[in-house]
Design a protein that fits this description.
- About 45% of the residues lie in helices and about 20% in strands.
- It has helices at about 15-25, 35-40, 45-50, 65-70, 90-95, 110-120; strands spanning about 5-10, 30-35, 50-55, 80-85, 100-105.
- The longest helix has 14 residues, at about 110-120.
Length: about 130
């Protein structure tokens, strides 16, 4: 029997967090949700997560800064970025920082699931 992957969802919008949580739990994942990068970093789940799905534009610490910080600390945890403002320069910056995938909101559930499956299978190699 395989152990379910732990997915951490970071978004300041509670409706987005709930929607992604429901989607992922329906697919058998263990999901932890956070309203900020700081909340995520304070939790025990920051070290045992299999993948982070994060909104790019969050208050205080940007999620790209969070990814950069985690990479500097030696973490190879895959990151998938989502944003309501899919700017090409931000996408390029996120992918250069090591994001596995970058999706503009709204996105299809199938696109998120494809990104997640690839991120988990490849350990976070950049997809798109």
């Amino acid at each position: 029997m395989s152990v379910a992957s732990v997915i951490s969802v970071l978004d300041d919008d509670p409706y987005v967090r709930a929607a992604i949580n429901n989607l992922l739990e329906s697919r058998g994942y263990i999901v932890h949700t956070f309203a900020s990068a700081e909340e995520f970093l304070r939790s025990a789940n920051s070290t045992d997560t299999s993948c982070v799905i994060a909104d790019v534009q969050m208050p205080s610490v940007t999620e790209i800064d969070l990814l950069t910080q985690m990479r500097a600390q030696g973490s190879a945890t895959p990151f998938i970025f989502i944003t309501a403002f899919p700017d090409e320069s931000v996408r390029v910056r996120a992918l250069k920082a090591g994001a596995s995938c970058f999706l503009g909101k709204p996105f299809a559930a199938s696109d998120l699931m494809q990104c997640l499956e690839v991120a988990l299978a490849t350990g976070g190699e950049t997809m798109k």
